[in-house]
Design brief:
Largest sheet: none
Radius of gyration: 17 Å
Distance between the termini: 16 Å
Order of helices and strands: HHHHHHH
Strand content: under 5%
Structural class: mainly alpha
Length: 135
């Protein structure tokens, strides 16, 4: 998603030479800022709530937000207890599940995300990584 944002804003050529690392998780991305290992990251709004003393969210202009991302949930084909896994997914999507996410400052609806986007910003979708970004 970060590459898509940079390409869309015509900032890729300017920013790419300054990228010092890529991480495999949101936790590690936020940790880089908390530990002052980097000056900035492209990440989620919730990072600020994880460590408000060290992380400040700087919002993109609405027209630069290329899509609304979401966290999918699925039952693996090799699940040992698929019925229980389906129950867990149902809980995540329930009012009680959403309340837990909201308690920890996650956005829980498209309407909440729309505050940061234009009305026409798509939800989900696919972005093909340009060859120049592939290692």
């Amino acid at each position: 998603m970060g590459v898509e944002l940079l390409e869309h804003a015509n900032l890729a050529d300017k920013v790419k030479p300054n990228i010092v690392t890529n991480t495999e998780s949101c936790e590690k991305t936020a940790e880089l800022v908390s530990l002052k290992a980097v000056d900035a990251v492209l990440g989620w709004e919730v990072f600020e709530h994880w460590d408000p003393d060290h992380i400040e969210t700087v919002y993109l202009p609405k027209e630069q937000v290329t899509r609304i991302g979401y966290i999918p949930a699925a039952v693996g084909t090799k699940a040992k207890e698929p019925a229980l896994a389906k129950e867990f997914i149902a809980f995540l999507a329930s009012d009680d599940g959403k309340a837990i996410f909201k308690k920890w400052s996650y956005l829980t609806s498209e309407a909440e995300a729309r505050v940061y986007t234009t009305p026409s910003t798509p939800v989900g979708g696919v972005y093909e990584l340009p060859a120049s970004w592939q290692q």
